[in-house]
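Open question from group meeting: does this chain pack into something compact, or does most of it stay loose? Before anyone orders reagents, we agreed to write out a predicted structure and look at it together. Recording both the input and the output here so the notebook holds the full record.
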Amino acid sequence: MPRLPFSLLTATLALFVFALPASAFETRAKSAFVLDYTTGTVLLSKDADVALPPASMSKLMTLYVAFEAIRDGRLKLDERLRVSRHAMNYTGSTLFLEEGERVRVDDLIRGIIVLSGNDACAVIAETLSPDGSERGFARKMTERAKELGMTNSSFANSNGWPDPGQRMSMRDLAILATRIIEDFPEYYTMFAEKEFLFDEKQSQNRFNRNPLLGLGIGADGLKTGHTQEAGYGLVGSVMQGNRRIIFVISGLQSENARAREAEAITNWAFRQFSQAKLLEKGDIIAQADVWMGAQETVGLTAAADLQALVPNASKGKIAAEVVFDGPIKAPIAAGQELGKLVIKPEGLSETEVPLVAAQAVERGGVVVRLKTASQKVMNKLVKNAEGAL
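C-alpha cells returned:
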C-alpha cells in the first residue's frame, strides 16, 4: 500500500500552508476532553476514557432518554406526572416537590436542565422505567448508553447521586452532548436558559449554575456537576461564528476553579485554532498507477472541499500522506473511492479524507493486456534468476 508524503507532492499541495502546533493546554482538571465539534478534531484529552463519578452531569443521560420518549410519543410535554415518596425524599439540588403533587413534563425537564433537580429526575425515571423503579430506569440508561457508543458509562440512578455504580468517562459525556445537540435541536435551546422559577415559595433555587452563560461568549449548554467525591465538573458547549466546541472537565476544587478553567479552555480553543479550506473539490492530490488500463495512471482527488482545523501559532506545512492499494486494476469509474488522505497537524489528532478517481479509466485493449502480461512474466523470470544466484 503506497504511502506518499506530501513533501513529494509540492506542485499540487500549495494550499497546505498552515501547520505547526499551538501550545498544549495544561488543564487543572482531573480529567478533560475538548472537541472541535465542527471538524471533529480532538483538541485535548486527559484521562478522557477513565470512568469517574459524573455527579449531576449524568443527568444528561436521563434527559436524552426522556427526549427520545417524547419524540416517540411515550411521553408528552403537557402531561402531568405524579411525584412519589422516593422522588420527594431526594435532597441536594431539588425542585422541592411534594409527594402526590402532579408536575408537567416540560417543567420537570426545565427543572433538570436549569435547576439540576434530583427529584425531577426521579419522577421522569420512575415514569419511563420498565419496572417503575429508578433502579430499573438506570439499567435502561446503561443499555442505551452502550448503544450510543458510550463504552465507559454505567448508571445506578437517574441524577448522579453518589453510588459506586454511577460512572462516566469525559469522552462519553462529550458523545452524549453531541447526540443531544444533533438529535434534539428543538429542546437544546433550554440548556441556554439562565433562570427558571418553578415555585415562587422556593425561589432560592432558580438560577442555572453554568458559569459561561452570562459571559457573552456564545455558551449555550450543557450541565454542571458537583459532589464531594467527583469535585466540580462541567459539560460545556460554545458556538462562535461557524465553529462549535464541546468540552468536559471534572475534578476541579471549587466553583471558581471550574468557572476559570471553563473560560480558559474556551479562549484557548477559539484563539489558538481556526478552520481553513485546505483543498477544493477536484484538486488532484496524486497519481496512482493503473493495472491493465487504457491509461497508465489515474488522478486521485478529494470528493468535496476539505475544511480542517489548523493551529494559528505559526505557518508551515501540514504533514500528510496519500494512502491507496496499488496499482489499481481497471476499469475504474469516475468518483470511485480509491484511497485516503491522512492529514497530520502536529499536536492534533489525524484526520482521514476519502480520495476518489478524478476520471474514468477503461480497461485496456488486447495490446495493453499482452504488454502487461509480458511484463509480469519478465518480472517473475528476473526475480527467479536473482534467487538462483
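Observations to bring back to the group:
The domain at 31-271 is CATH 3.40.710.10 (Beta-lactamase).
The chain has two domains: 3-18+277-367, 31-271.
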